[in-house]
Design brief:
Chain lengths: 173, 173, 173, 173
């Protein structure tokens, strides 16, 4: 068995400059630490930026696309064609060992964070708004321990590694 | 053409007493006004309560189930078996002409409200927390006009009817 | 509990005249016997014909559509919007208590018969080609007992009722 | 742009010895020619054998799993968790630039070949039964040119490469 850890990076297709920069930096860090980077795979926003960062360090990059017609990010090594539109968000978060949201600026990202918690995945909110943090803390309920925050890519990646170690420990029990 | 309007009612499987009562009342009102009521179809919480209310007034009730193994609410006339787990939330909200969330207490409901906005569906937040209302207002962006609030089932149903009329008008343009 | 039996009727969107007539007759018979009729819901071929037949006898008709953009058959009471393209075929066959294929003329229908068998649903091949019957007999394996043939709508509907009775008996064991 | 070609290898989870050997050999050949190998990812039959063959030559291997609970093949580099049961067959065939079926022994594989044709993917039937070849020729219709047969892994891989070249040519038009 030598499955590699997968970092699912989610965020807006029309993300802010800050979120885009965070995503690219996070992708680069993930690749350096030998994580596979998975995103929604479109040639836009956080999805494209995270793949670009990972590719720049020789990382493996995978996009899980909403439809067969969608333009694929040029930095995706492999394009998984889900053809299930927004429902593919569930596949993205399930495929990640840990999910990092670069900003929670729109409804798509909000659905991904929600689905991640629902599926009991660790989620790191990177530079999320206070409203987003407060909301997800409110709804997390029993999944409260799965919700984390970070203020830069380095902190988010460190947190992801700690979450992965934690998951492995609880798997062994 | 005589397709009937569909009200998608979403909410927790372990909902509060208030949310459960709201859902049952809403289902009853929807049936009285000849809407079909669609929920996640499980024998629990808001899903079951809305179907129960609708059935009590002779309404048509449909559950869209996560898996074939799941126990179906006794008040569902028809069970649609999606077998796609949490991704079925996307099917529920797309199937509704309007979506009403009875409380936004957990991650599942949060994903449904998010997916509804992403798919440009009108959403009524019925007795949602201030944190939830503020969060969805923040992320709605261009979909801001699709987000509504209500403090009782009657108000939510009136709002749903107004949204439906609005959709029909914009379809005709 | 008063869930009504569901007949999933599958077949080509560009079906032959014979298959279209079979579908319409089958829909009418199903409605008469108080089955709900479910199809792919598009305004074409077998999907549309079965809904039309059922509607003509006052039956409840449901279409499970591939996308939100697709034109819906005018005879669907309710349109379930799966937004998962061909993968929605799996939802159609799982939702049926029994599946009837009106002709197996194309790849879409072949996928539906295959998915039905894979999900252990009873399937009636109505006026299928000898090649289709032979093929599905070959691959059915342990599901061989789930595969039936019929040469007219009446026979198909009688077979569906027998299959339903059989399923109920095995559920009780 | 440097997306790598993807070979989707499909076949039974309880495949014959011949089909398993074909799959392993095909996976090895695909890896040698720098294709990514994608299968259903379970630790059984053709799915596992193709990944094992590809991994033995240092190829990139991806499994698209039916559920989060399923045991993953030890030779998958990355596990995509679809959580949509049999509907994930549609994702597998859409993700492949070309699909090879190692035997068509069961309903799952029959659904994959059917969905591939429906989605206009080239399909190579490797050592399929005469009944299967005849059936798919009958239903292929306008997709007749997408259907190919082969009698060993080498021939199947050569055919896949020719299909890929053909797709690229028609994309450029």
């Amino acid at each position: 068995m030598s499955r590699r850890p997968v970092l699912a990076v989610v965020g807006g297709s029309a993300s802010t400059e800050g979120a885009t920069r965070d995503a690219e930096e996070l992708g680069a860090l993930a690749a350096t630490r030998d994580w596979v980077v998975v995103t929604g795979g479109r040639a836009k926003g956080v999805m494209a930026a995270a793949l670009k960062g990972a590719r720049s360090r020789g990382g493996l990059t995978i996009g899980i696309l909403p439809t067969a017609a969608e333009e694929v990010s040029p930095d995706a090594d492999v394009a998984i064609i889900s053809d299930m539109h927004e429902a593919r968000n569930n596949v993205i978060v399930l495929t990640g060992n840990v999910v990092v949201a670069c900003g929670v600026d729109g409804a798509g990202t909000a659905s991904e964070v929600s689905l991640a918690l629902k599926n009991r995945r660790h989620v790191v909110l990177l530079n999320a708004s206070p409203e987003a943090i407060r909301f997800f803390e409110t709804i997390a309920g029993e999944q409260r321990g799965l919700l984390h925050t970070a203020i830069n890519a380095q902190e988010a990646m460190d947190c992801a590694e700690a979450c992965l170690a934690l998951s492995h420990r609880s798997d062994r029990r």
